[in-house]
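Weekly sync, protein design subgroup
Attendees: M.S., D.O., the rotation student, P.L. (late)

Item 1: inverse folding check
M.S. brought a backbone from last month's batch and wanted to see whether the design step gives back something sensible before we order anything. D.O. pointed out we never logged the input encoding, so this time it goes straight into the notes. Structure tokens as presented (263 positions):
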């Protein structure tokens, strides 16, 4: 069968738009994954893609062939040039897939370990935080106004599959979401907070993380029971927010696994 190659094809135009238009993703409730690793993570989490796109060069990959079989769908064959046009990545690795966005219910009230992101605009940082949150046992991620789109291709690539181990919510009112959380909230601040190792981080816990320049908004910070600052070497000003999140999330993980703290 001749691979799809025309940019004028309606399906191709739609996939191209899904990779670039957050409003379209929200309206249609779907997103585009790029690459074998993300599709594998999605399938392992029990997802079933709506469509799988395989390029001409991707057809020679045994890994991609195995993923397509597991997905249980007949792939849409596309030319290498068309996949490069559809995908957001500069060098897509032979595969893309359309997925339905998850619709978590009562996620904040049910959360036991959550991250709340306050106006973190960089997609790479948002994705890296979700990756660390999943790695260190968080179950929920809540993105407030001003955050990068959780389901953009760049955020998904940075998340490396972490999205599919979390309940991911995008909310219009972050303080309202924080008030719904049933546990203790800790706000990350660049300076003036307690060292994470000195805090008791067991139990139901939520982290409030803000953009590096402006930090957490006053309205969100006011709802925290504690503030945490990571001790740094003399002369160091601050950490990237994604790096700081990894340190904080690891500290809770360390406490739970070395002190026998109750989760």
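Designed sequence read out in the meeting:
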């Amino acid at each position: 069968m001749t691979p799809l190659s025309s940019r004028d094809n309606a399906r191709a135009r739609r996939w191209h738009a899904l990779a670039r238009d957050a409003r379209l993703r929200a309206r249609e409730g779907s997103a585009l994954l790029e690459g074998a690793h993300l599709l594998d993570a999605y399938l392992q989490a029990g997802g079933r893609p709506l469509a799988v796109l395989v390029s001409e060069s991707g057809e020679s990959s045994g890994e991609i062939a195995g993923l397509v079989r597991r997905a249980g769908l007949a792939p849409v064959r596309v030319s290498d040039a068309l996949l490069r046009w559809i995908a957001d990545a500069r060098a897509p690795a032979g595969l893309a897939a359309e997925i339905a966005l998850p619709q978590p219910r009562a996620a904040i009230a049910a959360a036991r370990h959550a991250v709340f992101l306050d106006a973190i605009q960089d997609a790479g940082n948002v994705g890296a935080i979700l990756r660390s949150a999943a790695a260190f046992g968080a179950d929920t991620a809540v993105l407030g106004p001003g955050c990068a789109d959780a389901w953009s291709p760049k955020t998904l690539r940075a998340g490396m599959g972490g999205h599919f181990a979390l309940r991911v919510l995008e909310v219009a009112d972050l303080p309202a979401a924080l008030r719904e959380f049933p546990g203790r909230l800790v706000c990350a601040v660049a300076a003036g907070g307690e060292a994470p190792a000195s805090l008791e981080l067991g139990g139901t816990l939520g982290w409030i993380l803000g953009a590096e320049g402006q930090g957490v908004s006053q309205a969100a910070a006011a709802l925290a029971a504690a503030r945490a600052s990571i001790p740094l070497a003399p002369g160091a000003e601050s950490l990237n927010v994604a790096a700081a999140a990894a340190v904080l999330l690891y500290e809770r993980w360390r406490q739970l696994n070395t002190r026998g703290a109750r989760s």
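Discussion: The longest helix spans residues 241-258. The chain has two domains: 10-100, 107-258.
Action: P.L. to compare against the previous round before Friday.
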